[in-house]
Specification:
alpha+beta; two-stranded antiparallel ribbon; 2 strands
Length: 93
């Protein structure tokens, strides 16, 4: 089951858009959940992570906008993201 209840942004979005309890594929998730950009994260930083799960470090990204955004990160991400680190970049060209 997809659990949007721990992250306020997705919890609120799920309630407004009536997401299914489960997604059958990654494509269904992509087609259903609207994408968001750095401005949304920057304007609502506390709504994008579960505050009960204390982060191990902060990621700072400025990209081409030169407007840094800090994001909480966890050591466990390093193991899960090592191989597909460029997948998101590929999706967005």
């Amino acid at each position: 089951m997809t659990n949007f209840s721990k992250v306020k942004y997705f919890k609120d979005l799920s309630r407004l858009q009536k997401f299914p309890r489960e997604f059958n594929s990654l494509q269904e998730y992509i087609d259903t959940v609207p994408s968001f950009d750095k401005d949304i994260i920057k304007d609502n930083p506390d709504t994008f992570y579960d505050k009960r799960n204390k982060s191990n470090f902060m990621r700072i990204t400025g990209g081409t906008t030169a407007q840094p955004v800090q994001l909480p990160a966890w050591k466990s991400e390093l193991d899960h993201l090592r191989l597909p680190s460029h997948l998101g970049r590929k999706w967005y060209g």
